[in-house]
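pasting for ref
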Amino acid sequence: MAQGFKPTPSPEWRAGRVMYAAIGLSRYGRATTPARGILRELRKKCLENRVQWPYSHGRNAEWGMSDNMKRDLIVKLAALVFFTALVGCGMRVESNVSVFSEMSTEDTGKVVFIAPYDEAQRDSLEWRSYAQIMAGKFQENGFSVTSNPIEADLVAFLGYAIDDGEQVVTTYSIPQWGVTGYSGAYTTGTYNSYGTYNSYGSFGSYGSSGSYSATTTLTPQYGVTGYSTGTRVSTVYTRSLAIDIIDATTNDKKWEMKLASSGSCGRFSAVAPAFFEAAFQSFPSGSGGTVWLDTDGTC
């Protein structure tokens, strides 16, 4: 560190602290290759931005690790990855979409009025929020949206639903870690000699003998020694979204979309942005399939 350089906290510095706290590297030594790569990138980022690296107990001290800590490191790294996925990456939503269309490029630019399937939902703030999302999708595709049905060329009916959830029980295997063998051994010892006094009164070698003591150290290897079974109980919710577009003059159906999804999130508002994104991916043409989308929100 250059003289006069004052370390300042940074996101990388804090990330390093979290990494060390999570996987216990503040007092362990040599990390495995994946952990080493993560830490190396964090340290590189710190140096690029002239900020303090969180733990440096001597040259390359952060990379040291004894073999008997590998098990703890693997488990803690797995927990860290799982925690990061939950906290930093939002949700991944699966949608099964079915679309049928008789619309063409000639319909682009027409005026759309959005209406609920159930007229009682018109005063619902939740329904209005979804109608606004859908209005944005129409506008992104070159259509205009009106609040006056008399001005509309097309009427788009919007409906959604979510159930109370169903409990699902799953089982999974948990690896048990321990010593699987030994890669080698080494022995160290000491020899203590002693003797008797000779006839001249000095310590000599006549009649001398000694004792030997030794210690053998084995080098263990760690790995999976077996598996135990864990049980997980979760609630799965079924969610659906439906949109029908009709011609305001002839009442002929022009576009039909049905979306179904199952997942652990029981709040429709949390997954609605992903649903509308999936629903309008091929608009105004007709197609469908399974769509995976990431959302920034949490349930």
